[in-house]
Amino acid sequence: MTATIPKTDDDLQLLEFESVQLAEIGAPCLHLTCGDEMPSPTVLKGCLAKGNAVIIDFPVFSDGRGFTLARQLRQSLPAPHPIVAAGHIIPDQADFLHRSGFSHAMINPLAFAAWQTALGMVSARFQHMPNSPRGR
Amino acid sequence: MYVYDNIDRTFLADRSRQFRDQVARRLSGALREDEFKPLRLQNGLYLQLHAYMLRVAIPYGVLSGDQMRGLAGVARDFDRGFGHFTTRQNIQFNWIKLVDAPDILDRLAGFDMHAVQTSGNCIRNVTSDPLAGATPDEVEHAHGWSEIIRQWSTLHPEFAFLPRKFKIAVSAGAEDRAATGFHDIGLRIVKSRSGEVGFRVLVGGGQGRTPRVAQQLTPFLPKRNLLSYLEAIMRVYNAAGRRDNIYKARIKILVEAMGIDAFRDAVDAEWVTIRDSAVELPDRERDRILGHFARPTLGEPEIAEDKIRNQRETSRGFDRWMRHNILPHYDPGYANVTISLKQINRPPGDASAAEMEAIADLADTFGQGEIRVTYSQNLIIPHVKRSMLPELYKSLSTIGLGGGEDGLISDMICCPGLDYCNLANARSLPLADRIFEHFSDLGMRDEIGRLRLNISGCINACGHHHAADIGILGVNKKGVEHYQISLGGRAGEDAAVGSILGPSFTEDAVPAAIATLVDVYLHHRQRDENFAATVTRLGAAPFKRALYPNA
After folding, report:
1. What range does the domain containing B343 cover?
2. CA–CA distance from B165 to each of B53, B161, B415, B455 (Å)?
3. What is the number of structural domains in chain B?
4. Does residue B141 share a domain with residue B273?
5. Which terminus of chain A has fewer Cβ atoms in its 10 Å neighbourhood, N or C?
6. Is residue B126 part of a domain?
7. Residue A9, pLDDT above cutoff 60
């Protein structure tokens, strides 16, 4: 993982959920948007071999299809393979994004503190999810 | 009933802190209104016509006496002294200030209650049979499985931003008292021929402007696969449900567009990837939760029937109450008691703080300290010794709650209507009062017998007019409130959507129109036939002819 995701005009950066730090990852192999079909197994195999990130773009934060897409992808791309949430996402979704299978979020670094707070806000785990086993 | 442990309590404290932070960020401008809206909705906070409304979750309609007293405190300290029990077994407070909301959530958390997911495009509070665990006709206690679903759906990370709201109901009785046929997912606990207990799964029911009765997705789902199967359904809906049109976003529209067979195929394709995986509930956790729903230890019943018979002979009120407000219990020495929240000048489902406190005390004294909220907006005290029924009736009468009837024409389900709601086209509460007045004669109500009359102030159908023997829908005709009347709807086992009889009526004309329909029934009914059975036998034609003689 040498190349980084190119910085955008908005100077967005990547937040890694697991370590709660700004991070760099390999260049993306796939750029999906909420509502896209699951990529073919061949395409996913290619991504897996190269270790390249899959980006899922949220046109609007309330478009929940991205959560299901991430979860389906995570069944084929086991951790720590990067799956990045991008587009219109808000800190209040941090824990939901992480637990649905996203490893990273593309955020405005000025909002880093809000994301950090949001990630530690609710500890309950009533479901078994890709990045978090059930709490009980 | 389920008792919270440290994990549940920590969750509520976290959640309350989180919402306080969100309100602060909204007030400071860090959160935009469009971003704040789904967050406040997922904490039960609506902006209504005059004020904020807070909808508090009563999981599957079960409250302890202490929780009921706590809710009374909220009504008194943050509202105008009333709470409103809803058809989804929740309670709403209609006069809330946004700045008070975090304090109210803290207060609720103090007695193990919350408003999580009572609104918004997420999995809502699960509803169930108000008689579960206390009735002779059930396969097993439906509330244990309701609690399992409640926990699973709470902050489910994948399903917090669905195309639209999502409602699940669980029923285990021979009689479906949870309207499972009108839910996005209806679960009926059934026993297979071999004696195994599992779920019959229905999908795609709902009311609103496109009323649909749920269709069968599978006749038998083994218990151990409940969570993976629910996740598979939710996944198909989350991915494929429409997001371009709010009126076509419910799962009923998706199921209809795909067809039930194609929908089932899609669910099965998801299901095979997670079935019997870590997604399923571990046995230990299942046993922990179900362990909270063991039958209570009931004392030996006392000889009661002579006492009851004597009392019925001397008190007409008690006699009617015994006929209309007592539901059978699995132990013949016990009963389940309906407290009707339907009276003239009382919005159906409303209770004052003082009444809530009194009812909590009665549940402690005469029952097992537990109160149930029903789909029809009444309350039930389960597990009452029959020998204590005369005393309970006396106590209820003292606080003005000894009257009212379960299931008669007076037992209307009714939405708040234009008096409170910013979606409504017409008022529904004043109409309910006028119908009450028209049918104020108790003998007449008894003569008519079981008849479900429901009123909705608009096509969103919160008053469940589609699922009523007689349904009334408020419409706006050139700025004047009118009411459309439909016939033949039913919740329950053989759920059906009522059909509209004809042109709408003005408010003044509605009570007489209802009386006309009732007269047709009384004229044509055969021995012991209730209103619904007569309508089924005759069809709508004779009712139509009587209602529109010149058509």
Report:
1. 305-398
2. 17, 9, 18, 22
3. 4
4. yes
5. N
6. no
7. no
Contacts of A98 in chain B (CB under 8 A): 157
Mean pLDDT on B379-394? 98
Complete DSSP assignment for B65-117 = HHHHHHHHHHHHHHSSSEEEE-TTS-EEEEEE-GGGHHHHHHHHHHTT-B-TT
The CATH number for B36's domain is: 3.90.480.20
Contacts of A69 in chain B (CB under 8 A): 239
Query: Is residue B160 located within the same domain as residue B14?
Result: no
Four-residue CA torsion sign, B214, B217, B219, B223: negative
Which chain A residues contact residue B21 at CB under 8 A?
Answer: 117, 121
Average pLDDT over residues A36-64: 94
Residue B276 sits in the same domain as residue B363: no
Residue A36 has pLDDT above 50, yes or no: yes
- Residue B236 C-alpha, separation from nearest chain A C-alpha, in angstroms: 9
DSSP state for residue B384 in the 8-state scheme: E
Structure tokens at B150: 């409640």
Look-up of token digits 């015994």: B322
Q: What is the pLDDT of residues B6-38, one digit of tens each?
A: 999 999 999 999 999 999 988 898 889 899 999
- Give tens-digit pLDDT for B462-498: 999 999 999 999 999 999 999 999 999 999 889 999 9
SS3 B199: strand
Q: Which of A96, A133, A136 sits opposite B157 (nearest CB)?
A: A96
Q: Exposed, middle or buried, B206 (CB in 10 Å: 0-12/13-18/19+)?
A: buried
Query: CA nearest B152: which of B91, B228, B57?
Result: B228
Q: Where on the phi/psi map is residue B419: left (φ > 0), alpha (ψ -120 to 50), or beta?
A: alpha
Residue A115 and residue B144 in contact, taking contact as beta carbons nearer than 8 Å: no
Measured between CB atoms, does A124 come within 8 Å of chain B?
A: yes
Are B213 and B285 in the same domain? Answer: yes
Residues in chain B: 551
B538 DSSP assignment: H
Cα separation, B56 vs B74, in Å, equals 11
Rounded CA gap, A62 and B467, in Å? Answer: 32
Quote the pLDDT of residue A20: 95
Helix intervals (H) in chain A? 41-50, 65-76, 94-100, 112-119
Residue A112 to chain B, least CA–CA distance (Å): 13
Strand pairing of B91-96 and B127-128? unpaired
What is the greatest pairwise CA distance in chain B? 69
Instruction: Kindly report which listed range (A9-13, B53-57, B392-396) carries the lowest average pLDDT score.
Output: A9-13
Whether residue B302 lies within 8 A of chain A, CB to CB, comes out as no
Rounded to an integer, the average pLDDT of B201-217 is 97
Residue that wins the pLDDT comparison between A72 and B47: A72
Q: For residue A24, give how far its alpha carbon lies from the nearest alpha carbon of chain B (Å).
A: 25
Strands B413-414 and B453-456: parallel
